[in-house]
TrEMBL record:
Belongs to the protein kinase superfamily. Ser/Thr protein kinase family. GCN2 subfamily. It is an enzyme of class 2 (transferase). ATP binds at residue 102. Residues 178-194 have a biased composition (Basic and acidic residues). SUPFAM superfamilies: Protein kinase-like (PK-like). Residues 70-395 form the Protein kinase domain. This is non-specific serine/threonine protein kinase.
């Protein structure tokens, strides 16, 4: 979502979050340094001391920390678990820079706080150029509605990426669709026909070099997660943030964000429904293992499918499903879209929606979004197979992975 203007009114609850009458004003607890070699897993969080009541300890709160140190907050976006704000962090009047601050209501629920802190653990320890970095976390009470009570919220201060997200970057012109274009789109969909290819003269047509640069950034961040035993489970363009450092001639960089659905790859799926945005989900995670049983497990290969769909989206500005709505996701019929994804036969690389893209890209894309998980390469194989060099787009690296790697030119 776009950042609001300087004149926009800040939500009153953000300016002065009243403390809960049941909480005492206490100094912020000291954070102990942890050894670098400590493994990252769910037990490292779940094993911490839990209050006997199941609630959150009073000593964990930092009353009015946001009011004292978060200057001029602006809303960046909202998700299923909370809101993300752009803030200028101040310490005794000294600006420490702009940051993205994720505010997640946790209530007086220690178990839910554990789940939120799982994301914090990942941000803190899995440092990588293509993963959003972590800065600080604290708890305080916030009055989220005008007449409602104060609610305990976790605030996660993290790196601010100053150029929006990949979804809006690609669809910057698609949101200006005329009424006649919308009517034609609805008529085509009612006849079961796919949307017309994008007008390739519009800004959403990313050049091949930029597509591959963005793709390599996302694959690099994803590989770092996978190599540490974690899967993302909600990889999509809106979770791929763009950052411009301001260095002349330096390209935009992409950082993977939003680790709220991350889990260890070895963990069995416990939820009974779909996790993440369904349009980018692999078919095997939408399909029930048995008629009365649960759904298929998320794996590193299901992340690769999502990565492939992001590549498809960057190339063509849409997805290969009739029921997918890139601009207004809330208009999707989820049941129908789920059935369409599960029945999708895979990409026919002979259908050249953009003749300017090399043939090998279509072949590569076909393997990434294959309905068969065993056909998809790993993130490591992708990165081992391609290398950016000055003067040439991409070249193949001869390695042990060469039989599964792909050459772009």
């Amino acid at each position: 979502m776009p950042v609001t203007s300087e004149d926009d009114e800040v939500e009153p609850a953000l300016r002065r979050p009243p403390p809960s009458p049941t909480r005492r004003r206490l100094p912020r607890p000291e954070v102990e340094e942890e050894s670098e070699d400590r493994s990252i897993d769910e037990e490292s969080i779940a094993g911490s001391a839990t209050p006997a009541t199941g609630g959150i300890s009073e000593a964990a709160f930092s009353p009015k920390y946001f009011e004292r140190h978060g200057n001029n907050p602006k809303e960046l976006g909202r998700g299923g678990t909370g809101v993300v704000l752009l803030v200028r962090h101040l310490l005794d009047g000294v600006s420490l820079g702009h940051f993205a601050c994720k505010r997640v209501p946790v209530g007086d629920n220690h178990k839910w706080l554990e789940k939120v802190l799982m994301e914090v653990q990942l941000l803190q320890r899995l440092s990588h150029t293509n993963l959003v970095s972590y800065r600080h976390v604290w708890l305080e009470n916030v009055q989220l509605t005008t007449f409602g009570p104060s609610v305990p919220c976790a605030f996660i201060l993290q790196q601010f990426c100053n150029s929006g997200d990949l979804h809006n970057y690609v669809l910057s012109s698609a949101k200006q669709t005329t009424k006649e274009q919308l009517k034609d789109q609805m008529r085509r969909r009612s006849r079961g026909e796919p949307d017309l290819p994008l007008d390739l003269n519009k800004p959403r047509k990313l050049p091949f070099e930029q597509i591959i640069s963005f793709f390599r950034d996302i694959a690099s961040g994803l590989n770092h997660l996978h190599s540490n035993g974690f899967i993302h489970r909600d990889l999509k363009p809106s979770n791929c943030l763009l950052n411009d450092t301001g260095v002349p001639g330096q390209e935009l960089r992409v950082l993977v964000s939003d680790f709220g659905e991350v889990q260890m790859e070895s963990a069995a799926r416990k939820s009974t429904g779909a996790t993440g945005t369904i349009s980018y989900c692999a078919p095997e995670v939408l399909r029930k293992v048995t008629p009365d049983g649960g759904y298929g497990n998320f794996t590193a290969k299901s992340d690769i499918f999502s990565l492939g769909m992001i590549l498809y989206f960057m190339c063509f500005g849409n997805l290969p499903y009739i029921g997918a709505d890139m601009v207004n996701e809330e208009n999707e019929n989820l049941d129908a879209l789920r059935e369409e994804i599960m029945a999708w036969p895979g990409l026919d690389e002979r259908t050249r929606l953009r003749p300017d893209l090399p043939e090998r890209l279509y072949q590569f894309l076909k393997t990434l979004i294959s309905p068969d998980p065993s056909v998809r390469p790993t993130a490591e194989e992708i990165l081992m197979g391609i290398e950016m060099q000055e003067g040439t787009p991409l070249v193949i690296i001869e390695s042990a992975y060469s039989n599964r790697c792909f050459e772009f030119f």
